[in-house]
Specification:
- The complex is a heterodimer.
- By secondary structure, chain A is α/β, with parallel strands linked by helices.
- Chain A folds into three domains: about 160 residues, no CATH class; about 40 residues; about 60 residues.
- Chain A contains eight helices and 13 strands.
- In chain B, strands 1-2-4-3 form a four-stranded antiparallel sheet, covered by helices on one side.
- Chain B contains three helices and four strands.
- Chain B is rod-shaped.
- Classes of the chains: A alpha/beta, B alpha+beta.
- At the A-B interface, strand 10, helix 6, helix 7 and strand 11 of A face helix 1 and strand 3 of B.
Chain lengths: ~300, ~130
């Protein structure tokens, strides 16, 4: 059904007697005349295991051709296997006058009525029915129901187990080319995965380096703590450097023979001292000398 | 059907490849940012490391204090918490100059200096952080 138009694609049941012309895009359901069906009981849990054995199960039964297999689970350990040669089916449909460009998907009757017990007539002579789990095409005299398959198909929601899709056939790429593309993408994915792994390794290495740097230098973990510690130490650095520069500066002043420092005291970021100078002139000289001193964070109090 | 499976496989592999490309691109971008942050972190931390080495590494300070104590014999040497208090009485001018140079040319964190001269007697009181 087209989602926007609300128009449902027609589903047509195809037998080897079908001779109508297809006028619009439709899905086909093949009668069992086009393929081989076998019901098997095997002590395996998964259908893919059955698929591996399918060719040997049909050995001696199938004619020459390129057969593919589909396996459906009927009950636990009970499977229905369908063998079909899609190229042969296509040729047959074309020889029946069918325009394959009008065929969207092809299904088997078995896949669409797998677990249903059906008994439906197809035309005046034949019908379809489930016999021991297998859907068969048989004369009407063996059927009891008067229901028509055509009516059922009008509302039938088809499964995803189609054996042919026009969309995929349109892609004119050889199987070997498809294999090559798969290998190329596999290779690209492997390269990409290796790159991702390398990237993750690099990121981990960077993180480890950061941790090692922090550990080696006994640093705090956060940049906020680093900033705060750095601020404190910068203050210490400034006050200690200024203290040293201040003491060296005042000591550079040349004192006379009877002149001397009586006291120098540094406490709580303040430097104070008492100096004995000869006369007023010398005092003025010392004051001038102090004025030339570079600015500093140390408070200097002096007594002359 | 085989063709269909192969096409679906190619589509799946292509989607995985695209997802990996997107992951690689964003991861690479993030990684570059992390490297930049790391460089900024190391640069700013190096200043701190330098300051820590200068003002917080106490092993060198202790060695120097030991040297001062053994060479100039302080009249009292007391440790109060993280403070080392040293008192020197009757210091000669030469010794005062030597102690002064050693203290002021070092990276000791000096908390208190009290230098007094009374009747030609020099006394020095020093408190350093250890």
């Amino acid at each position: 059904m087209s989602f926007f138009s609300g128009h449902k694609k027609q589903t047509i049941f195809i037998t080897k007697d079908f001779h109508k012309k297809l006028t619009e895009k439709c899905d086909l359901i093949l009668s069992p005349e086009f393929y081989w069906t076998r019901k098997v009981s095997l002590n395996v849990n998964f259908s893919y295991e059955v698929k591996k054995m399918a060719s040997s199960i049909f050995e001696g039964i199938l004619p020459a051709g390129s057969f593919e297999y589909k396996v459906f689970t009927l009950f636990k350990n009970e499977y229905i296997i369908i063998a079909y040669d899609i190229q042969k089916i296509k040729l047959e449909l074309e020889s029946m006058g069918m325009d394959m460009s009008k065929v969207d998907k092809i299904y088997t009757l078995q896949s669409e009525f797998l677990k249903d017990e059906i008994s439906l007539h197809v035309n005046e002579k034949f019908g379809v029915a489930t016999v021991d789990g297998v859907v068969v095409y048989l004369p009407l005299k063996f059927l009891e129901s008067s229901n028509s398959l055509e009516n059922i198909l009008e509302d039938k929601r088809l499964s995803s187990s189609y054996i042919y899709s026009y969309q995929f056939q349109k892609i004119s790429v050889k199987p070997t080319e498809l294999n090559l593309i798969i290998w190329i993408f596999l290779l690209l994915n492997v390269v990409a995965v290796l790159n991702v792994v390398k990237l993750e390794k690099n990121r981990n290495f960077l993180e480890e380096q950061k941790i090692a740097f922090i550990k080696e230098n006994s640093l705090p973990a956060t940049s906020f703590q680093i900033k705060s510690m750095q601020g404190e130490l910068l203050e210490v650095n400034k006050s200690q450097t200024d203290l040293r520069e201040s003491i060296f500066y005042i000591y550079k002043f040349k004192l006379g023979k009877r002149e001397s420092f009586k006291m120098i005291k540094f406490e709580k970021n303040a430097l104070s001292y008492t100096i004995k100078l000869d006369n007023k002139l010398r005092e003025n000289e010392f004051k001038k000398y102090l004025l030339k001193k570079p600015t500093s964070s140390i408070n200097i109090e002096r007594k002359l | 059907m085989r063709t269909q499976i192969k096409i679906y496989t190619i589509l799946a592999l292509f989607s995985i490849f695209l997802a990996l490309l997107v992951y690689m691109y964003s991861g690479e971008k993030q990684y570059k940012g992390e490297i930049k942050n790391y460089e900024i972190f190391v640069k700013s931390s190096s200043k701190l490391v330098q300051l820590q080495h200068k003002w917080s590494d106490k092993s060198e300070d202790k060695k120097l204090l030991k040297k001062i104590k053994s060479r100039f014999k302080p009249s009292s040497s007391v440790q109060k918490g993280n403070l080392q208090i040293l008192d020197f009485n009757n210091l000669t001018k030469n010794n005062l100059n030597r102690i002064g140079k050693m203290l002021l040319n070092s990276d000791l964190t000096i908390k208190v200096i009290d230098l007094k001269k009374q009747n030609d007697k020099i006394s020095l009181h020093v408190e350093v952080q250890i």
